[in-house]
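Record filed below.
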Amino acid sequence: MPLEISVIIPIYNVEKYLARCLDSIINQTFQNLEIICIDDGSTDNSLTIAEEYANKDKRISIIHQENKGPSVARNIGMKIAKGKYISFIDSDDWIDLDFFEKLYSAAEKYNADAACAGIKRPHADGRTPFKLKFDKEMILSTTSEKYKILEIPRKCYVWNKIYKREEIERQNLKFIEKITCCEDVYFTTKFLYYSRNIAIVPNTAYYYWVNNKSITRNLKDKAQVDLLIARKDFIKFSRKHHIQCDEKFYIRDKITYKFFGITILRIYEWETIKKYYLFGLIPFFEKRISI
Protein backbone atom coordinates (compact mmCIF):
# COMPACT_ATOMS: atom_id res chain seq x y z
CA MET A 1 0.00 0.00 0.00
CA PRO A 2 1.41 3.43 -0.93
CA LEU A 3 2.34 5.67 1.99
CA GLU A 4 -0.22 8.46 2.29
CA ILE A 5 0.95 10.97 4.95
CA SER A 6 4.39 11.88 6.28
CA VAL A 7 4.22 13.65 9.65
CA ILE A 8 7.25 15.83 10.40
CA ILE A 9 7.83 16.78 14.06
CA PRO A 10 10.74 19.02 15.13
CA ILE A 11 11.56 18.25 18.77
CA TYR A 12 13.42 20.53 21.15
CA ASN A 13 13.19 20.33 24.97
CA VAL A 14 9.51 19.37 25.18
CA GLU A 15 9.68 16.45 27.64
CA LYS A 16 6.56 17.78 29.38
CA TYR A 17 4.44 17.75 26.22
CA LEU A 18 5.90 15.25 23.76
CA ALA A 19 3.94 12.18 24.88
CA ARG A 20 0.67 14.07 24.47
CA CYS A 21 1.69 15.08 20.95
CA LEU A 22 2.80 11.60 19.89
CA ASP A 23 -0.24 9.91 21.46
CA SER A 24 -2.52 12.10 19.37
CA ILE A 25 -0.68 11.04 16.21
CA ILE A 26 -0.16 7.30 16.71
CA ASN A 27 -3.80 6.87 17.76
CA GLN A 28 -5.26 8.54 14.68
CA THR A 29 -8.24 6.89 13.01
CA PHE A 30 -6.16 7.22 9.83
CA GLN A 31 -3.18 4.90 10.29
CA ASN A 32 -1.29 5.05 6.97
CA LEU A 33 1.42 7.37 8.31
CA GLU A 34 5.14 7.70 8.67
CA ILE A 35 6.17 9.81 11.66
CA ILE A 36 9.51 11.59 11.28
CA CYS A 37 10.84 13.01 14.55
CA ILE A 38 13.81 15.36 14.25
CA ASP A 39 15.47 15.89 17.62
CA ASP A 40 16.98 19.36 17.38
CA GLY A 41 19.68 18.96 20.02
CA SER A 42 17.38 18.55 23.03
CA THR A 43 19.09 18.74 26.43
CA ASP A 44 16.19 17.27 28.43
CA ASN A 45 14.53 13.83 28.15
CA SER A 46 12.75 14.54 24.86
CA LEU A 47 14.98 12.24 22.81
CA THR A 48 14.54 9.40 25.31
CA ILE A 49 10.75 9.78 25.17
CA ALA A 50 10.79 9.77 21.37
CA GLU A 51 12.95 6.63 21.34
CA GLU A 52 10.55 4.86 23.71
CA TYR A 53 7.70 5.56 21.30
CA ALA A 54 9.78 4.49 18.30
CA ASN A 55 10.49 1.15 19.98
CA LYS A 56 6.74 0.55 20.23
CA ASP A 57 5.64 1.94 16.86
CA LYS A 58 7.56 1.06 13.69
CA ARG A 59 6.08 4.03 11.86
CA ILE A 60 8.24 6.37 13.95
CA SER A 61 11.78 7.23 12.85
CA ILE A 62 14.15 9.55 14.69
CA ILE A 63 16.83 11.84 13.33
CA HIS A 64 19.19 13.59 15.74
CA GLN A 65 20.95 16.84 14.90
CA GLU A 66 22.73 19.64 16.73
CA ASN A 67 20.44 22.52 17.62
CA LYS A 68 19.76 24.37 14.36
CA GLY A 69 16.14 25.40 14.72
CA PRO A 70 12.76 24.17 13.43
CA SER A 71 13.32 25.38 9.86
CA VAL A 72 16.35 23.14 9.39
CA ALA A 73 14.52 20.26 11.07
CA ARG A 74 11.50 20.58 8.79
CA ASN A 75 13.67 20.85 5.68
CA ILE A 76 15.46 17.63 6.67
CA GLY A 77 12.09 15.95 7.22
CA MET A 78 10.86 17.00 3.78
CA LYS A 79 13.97 15.54 2.12
CA ILE A 80 13.23 12.05 3.40
CA ALA A 81 9.41 12.14 3.47
CA LYS A 82 7.79 9.53 1.22
CA GLY A 83 4.08 10.19 1.77
CA LYS A 84 1.69 11.58 -0.79
CA TYR A 85 0.96 14.35 1.70
CA ILE A 86 3.15 16.10 4.28
CA SER A 87 2.04 17.36 7.67
CA PHE A 88 4.01 19.52 10.10
CA ILE A 89 3.16 19.13 13.79
CA ASP A 90 4.86 21.08 16.58
CA SER A 91 5.95 18.83 19.43
CA ASP A 92 4.14 20.76 22.18
CA ASP A 93 0.82 20.67 20.29
CA TRP A 94 -1.68 17.91 19.50
CA ILE A 95 -4.50 17.07 17.09
CA ASP A 96 -7.98 15.54 17.18
CA LEU A 97 -7.91 11.79 16.57
CA ASP A 98 -9.80 12.17 13.28
CA PHE A 99 -7.60 15.04 12.07
CA PHE A 100 -5.76 13.13 9.34
CA GLU A 101 -8.77 11.08 8.29
CA LYS A 102 -10.88 14.16 7.63
CA LEU A 103 -8.13 16.20 5.97
CA TYR A 104 -7.04 13.29 3.78
CA SER A 105 -10.62 12.54 2.73
CA ALA A 106 -11.26 16.16 1.77
CA ALA A 107 -7.96 16.48 -0.12
CA GLU A 108 -8.72 13.32 -2.10
CA LYS A 109 -12.36 14.27 -2.70
CA TYR A 110 -11.45 17.60 -4.27
CA ASN A 111 -8.04 16.62 -5.65
CA ALA A 112 -6.76 19.54 -3.56
CA ASP A 113 -3.15 20.59 -3.14
CA ALA A 114 -3.76 20.95 0.60
CA ALA A 115 -6.44 20.54 3.24
CA CYS A 116 -6.79 22.83 6.23
CA ALA A 117 -8.41 22.36 9.66
CA GLY A 118 -9.45 24.80 12.34
CA ILE A 119 -7.23 25.76 15.27
CA LYS A 120 -8.07 25.70 18.97
CA ARG A 121 -5.94 27.44 21.57
CA PRO A 122 -6.22 25.77 24.99
CA HIS A 123 -5.70 27.94 28.06
CA ALA A 124 -4.45 26.97 31.51
CA ASP A 125 -7.89 27.74 32.99
CA GLY A 126 -9.49 25.02 30.86
CA ARG A 127 -10.95 27.20 28.12
CA THR A 128 -10.36 26.00 24.55
CA PRO A 129 -11.58 28.71 22.19
CA PHE A 130 -11.15 28.58 18.44
CA LYS A 131 -8.30 30.63 17.03
CA LEU A 132 -9.42 29.75 13.51
CA LYS A 133 -12.81 28.15 12.86
CA PHE A 134 -14.49 26.75 9.76
CA ASP A 135 -18.23 26.10 9.73
CA LYS A 136 -18.50 24.18 6.48
CA GLU A 137 -16.46 22.19 4.01
CA MET A 138 -15.43 24.14 0.94
CA ILE A 139 -12.80 24.40 -1.75
CA LEU A 140 -10.84 27.63 -2.26
CA SER A 141 -9.34 28.34 -5.66
CA THR A 142 -8.55 32.05 -5.85
CA THR A 143 -5.79 33.83 -3.96
CA SER A 144 -8.24 36.29 -2.42
CA GLU A 145 -10.42 33.43 -1.12
CA LYS A 146 -7.47 31.56 0.37
CA TYR A 147 -5.96 34.59 2.06
CA LYS A 148 -9.28 35.90 3.39
CA ILE A 149 -10.71 32.67 4.82
CA LEU A 150 -7.39 31.43 6.20
CA GLU A 151 -6.69 34.95 7.55
CA ILE A 152 -3.34 35.32 5.81
CA PRO A 153 -0.84 36.71 6.67
CA ARG A 154 -1.95 37.13 10.29
CA LYS A 155 -2.41 33.36 10.69
CA CYS A 156 0.27 31.86 8.47
CA TYR A 157 0.45 28.67 10.50
CA VAL A 158 2.06 25.75 8.74
CA TRP A 159 0.83 23.04 11.06
CA ASN A 160 -2.98 22.87 10.73
CA LYS A 161 -2.79 21.47 7.21
CA ILE A 162 -1.68 18.58 5.05
CA TYR A 163 0.17 19.47 1.83
CA LYS A 164 0.52 17.47 -1.34
CA ARG A 165 4.22 16.59 -1.45
CA GLU A 166 4.50 16.87 -5.23
CA GLU A 167 3.15 20.43 -5.02
CA ILE A 168 5.79 21.39 -2.42
CA GLU A 169 8.42 19.91 -4.72
CA ARG A 170 6.97 21.63 -7.79
CA GLN A 171 7.23 24.97 -6.02
CA ASN A 172 10.68 24.03 -4.66
CA LEU A 173 9.55 25.30 -1.27
CA LYS A 174 11.74 25.21 1.81
CA PHE A 175 11.74 26.92 5.17
CA ILE A 176 14.12 29.88 5.57
CA GLU A 177 16.83 28.48 7.81
CA LYS A 178 18.26 31.79 9.03
CA ILE A 179 15.14 32.49 11.11
CA THR A 180 13.73 30.42 13.97
CA CYS A 181 10.50 32.33 14.61
CA CYS A 182 7.74 33.20 12.10
CA GLU A 183 9.46 30.80 9.70
CA ASP A 184 6.10 29.57 8.44
CA VAL A 185 5.09 32.95 6.97
CA TYR A 186 7.31 32.47 3.92
CA PHE A 187 6.29 28.83 3.39
CA THR A 188 2.55 29.28 3.85
CA THR A 189 2.05 32.47 1.83
CA LYS A 190 3.96 31.03 -1.13
CA PHE A 191 2.28 27.64 -1.06
CA LEU A 192 -1.21 29.11 -0.90
CA TYR A 193 -0.52 31.56 -3.71
CA TYR A 194 0.94 29.03 -6.16
CA SER A 195 -1.31 26.07 -5.34
CA ARG A 196 -4.42 25.36 -7.42
CA ASN A 197 -6.88 24.87 -4.58
CA ILE A 198 -7.23 24.30 -0.85
CA ALA A 199 -9.87 22.19 0.91
CA ILE A 200 -11.33 23.65 4.11
CA VAL A 201 -12.36 21.03 6.67
CA PRO A 202 -14.72 21.67 9.65
CA ASN A 203 -15.31 19.57 12.76
CA THR A 204 -11.70 18.65 13.50
CA ALA A 205 -8.93 20.77 14.96
CA TYR A 206 -5.28 21.37 15.66
CA TYR A 207 -4.55 22.31 19.29
CA TYR A 208 -2.03 25.12 19.58
CA TRP A 209 -0.49 25.07 23.05
CA VAL A 210 1.24 28.23 24.31
CA ASN A 211 4.48 26.89 25.73
CA ASN A 212 6.20 29.46 27.95
CA LYS A 213 9.52 27.73 27.29
CA SER A 214 9.20 27.78 23.52
CA ILE A 215 11.77 29.42 21.27
CA THR A 216 9.48 32.35 20.56
CA ARG A 217 8.85 33.02 24.24
CA ASN A 218 12.47 32.80 25.29
CA LEU A 219 14.17 34.59 22.42
CA LYS A 220 11.99 37.68 22.34
CA ASP A 221 14.58 39.95 20.73
CA LYS A 222 15.37 37.32 18.09
CA ALA A 223 11.64 36.76 17.56
CA GLN A 224 11.11 40.46 16.86
CA VAL A 225 13.93 40.47 14.33
CA ASP A 226 12.57 37.35 12.66
CA LEU A 227 9.08 38.84 12.60
CA LEU A 228 10.38 41.89 10.75
CA ILE A 229 12.21 39.66 8.24
CA ALA A 230 9.05 37.62 7.64
CA ARG A 231 6.90 40.73 7.39
CA LYS A 232 9.21 42.42 4.89
CA ASP A 233 9.26 39.25 2.81
CA PHE A 234 5.46 39.14 2.76
CA ILE A 235 5.19 42.83 1.84
CA LYS A 236 7.62 42.33 -1.03
CA PHE A 237 5.76 39.23 -2.21
CA SER A 238 2.31 40.83 -1.96
CA ARG A 239 3.42 43.87 -3.91
CA LYS A 240 4.98 41.76 -6.64
CA HIS A 241 1.82 39.70 -7.08
CA HIS A 242 -0.69 42.50 -6.40
CA ILE A 243 -2.18 40.76 -3.37
CA GLN A 244 -4.59 42.99 -1.48
CA CYS A 245 -4.65 42.64 2.31
CA ASP A 246 -5.92 44.84 5.10
CA GLU A 247 -3.56 47.74 5.66
CA LYS A 248 -2.99 46.68 9.28
CA PHE A 249 -1.01 43.66 8.06
CA TYR A 250 1.64 45.99 6.72
CA ILE A 251 2.51 47.51 10.08
CA ARG A 252 6.24 48.19 10.35
CA ASP A 253 6.62 49.78 13.75
CA LYS A 254 4.80 50.72 16.94
CA ILE A 255 6.08 53.38 19.34
CA THR A 256 4.51 53.99 22.74
CA TYR A 257 5.17 57.00 24.97
CA LYS A 258 4.29 56.66 28.64
CA PHE A 259 4.24 58.97 31.63
CA PHE A 260 4.33 57.31 35.06
CA GLY A 261 3.24 54.08 33.44
CA ILE A 262 0.27 55.62 31.65
CA THR A 263 0.20 55.52 27.85
CA ILE A 264 0.10 59.10 26.58
CA LEU A 265 0.78 58.59 22.90
CA ARG A 266 1.02 55.61 20.59
CA ILE A 267 2.22 55.79 17.00
CA TYR A 268 1.56 53.02 14.49
CA GLU A 269 3.51 53.01 11.25
CA TRP A 270 2.23 50.96 8.33
CA GLU A 271 3.67 50.73 4.85
CA THR A 272 1.60 53.66 3.62
CA ILE A 273 0.48 55.60 6.68
CA LYS A 274 1.51 56.68 10.17
CA LYS A 275 -1.28 57.14 12.71
CA TYR A 276 -1.17 58.86 16.11
CA TYR A 277 -3.41 57.77 18.99
CA LEU A 278 -3.89 59.82 22.15
CA PHE A 279 -3.71 57.57 25.22
CA GLY A 280 -3.19 54.75 22.73
CA LEU A 281 -6.91 54.74 21.86
CA ILE A 282 -8.08 58.03 20.37
CA PRO A 283 -6.95 58.71 16.77
CA PHE A 284 -6.12 62.37 16.26
CA PHE A 285 -3.60 62.61 13.43
CA GLU A 286 -2.39 60.60 10.46
CA LYS A 287 0.33 61.07 7.89
CA ARG A 288 0.71 59.36 4.53
CA ILE A 289 4.07 57.75 3.83
CA SER A 290 5.49 57.63 0.34
CA ILE A 291 6.62 54.18 -0.79
